[in-house]
Task: structure prediction
Amino acid sequence: MLYPAIGVPLLGKGVFRRYMQYKYTRCLEKAGASVWLLPWNDTPEAIEVILDRCDGFLFPGGPDIQPQLYGQLAQPSCGIPNPARDAFELALLRGAIEAEKPLFCICRGMQLLNVAFGGTLFQDIKSQQEYAHMDFWHRAYATHPIELDPESLPGKLLESDAVTVNSMHHQAVNQIGDGLWVAAESPEGFPEALEMEGYPFCLAVQWHPEHMAAQTKIQRKLFRAFVDACR
Result:
């Protein structure tokens, strides 16, 4: 398979959303993929068609996930969720896992993976953070360190047990979902990468390699490894 088809849920409408979507699309295409942008349709028929046509899925960043989906009431610091996107992405993620499709889950995508496995989130981490984890203006550059399990998938791909990454999130994984384990942590102890036990290929990171890839070549390895797994 020369150009594997990778499905990426739509981020939404508007110039800003298209700009953010382009960052993912560009990295995937440079890694050798054909990208399918997926409208939000969580009907079983739509999910079945998408699973049949796509070789793997990238779940991107975006708005806060509904706290009700992980058994909490919304706190004042929680952002406005998008129920339609939540429903679609959870249905697609669960279908993709059942089909054992390769997965790349970024920021919200990693949090979604945790929620899908019964985990919970911190609705806001500002009072607990040592480094600024919401640093949009420096999104192309590393702004804080993380420690990686050297035997984890991201540890092997980045060839290190300690790297620096960018950050654009005010929420974080709290209780880890069943069947997942922490592959990287921030200095404060927030999970920065998750892995799924016994799964063929699942790369889940809290940072945004799509913004770092142009300046930090090693981050491109994450996209190449994902596309190779889809291929």
Summary: The chain has a mean pLDDT of 96. Residues 15-30 form the longest helix (16 residues). DSSP finds seven helices and eleven strands in the chain.
